[in-house]
Amino acid sequence: MGGKLTRTKSIQKDAPLKRWRAAAAGQGPRYLRIVGFIERAIADGRLVPGDRLPPQRQLADLLKLDLTTVTRAYSEAKARQLVHARGAYGTFIAAPKVELAPLVDLGMNMPPPPAGLDLGDLIKRGIEQVLTRVDANLLMAYHASGGGKADRAAGALWLAPMLGQVDPSRIAVCPGAQAALAGLIVALTQANDGIAVEPLVYPGILGAARQLGRRIVSVECDEDGMRPDALMRACREQGVRAVYLNPTLRNPTAQTMPEQRRRDLALAVRECGVPLIEDDPYWRLADHAPPPIAHWAPECVHYLSTLSKSLSPGLRMAYVASPDESAQLRFLAAMNATALMPSPLTMALSTQWMHDGTAMQLLQGVRAEARARLQLAESLLALREQAWPAAGIHVWYTLPEPWTGQTFARAARAEGLAVSASSAFSPGDEDVRAIRLSFGGVTEHARLAQALRKLAGILMRGEDPELAARPII
Length: 473
What we know:
single chain; Aspartate Aminotransferase, domain 2; Arc Repressor Mutant, subunit A; alpha/beta; 3 domains; 16 helices; Aspartate Aminotransferase, domain 1
């Protein structure tokens, strides 16, 4: 799909129109495929400001599409400020828009806009389907904690690839993973109990544990993850009463724990008699992930899967599979004290999408877009040897000397970019030579590419002592 279109030349001397045929290939609405082609071509430099697009009628004939489809594609590209029209002169690639937002966010971990799908249309159709089967008044009322029968059945569908067939009565529907984590901490531990974590860990568990008066116990790791012998020693000597693990595309390192280590940790928690919170938000994004730890220790594991990292954070929906009825009742009692129920409207939409297949469409779109963004980032940031994940929505980027995570975050912020420094993931706020980069928060490929080129420039020029001295505010 390469080839730069020549500025303001005659139609016949534009880049070969046959290259546009690839824009009609793939999945999703055809007009969005054309927009996606334009966006990707801008991101990798094949289209630059001032390049002219083919006339709409000529492109429609070439692609064997209705003129209205191409017109809609150009209108959408214009709405995204990718192109601008100049009347009889044609449609041209626009100059990069000036952003009023102070920062380009490469720090927040969220799934990218799904490739080839019109999310607004999916939401509209989903809500319409919900309203055909549910009284609108019920969507504005209080609901039972943990979700209704259909909502739990939807959770069982979502969890089936990870856990196999799950009894829906064991599943609780929660308003997001963070609320579920807080509920699990309250249900499984008491004040001043220790919670075992890896030395680099999701900040949400650190914040929740500290706010609830629990101690964080950092347990030694090797290249496969938490060491079972170190965990057992922490349980004996440091008052560990629960374990937290994120074994698949781990946040922040993007590593996936191998199967044998999962088996060994399942034996360790069983022998120690402590519950395990298995937070697995990225399993559905990974390629060939091993079975969860819950597969080998179902009586010990509280398995948590959120839709925020694989479909959309706007749904605010997570599913918790408890080991048994007693454990679930304790968990729901804890949830009732803080977050009575998920939003009935978004819970109904999530349930509708699970049952009608839309959730899988979204997931496939997110996976495809996440892969494309990882490839883009690898091409622009491959300035040095660097481990790179094959899937997921973030990478753990090791910095060259003399950078640390904090000093690089300051330099990036000075360039209008937000990244996550290593200290955010350390129980002891240790600042090592690494940052986490997340690629889902930037909507357009072109803007993401521009941000990544800025990061590459910072890496090439080295640390600025003046920036290093400034506090991050």
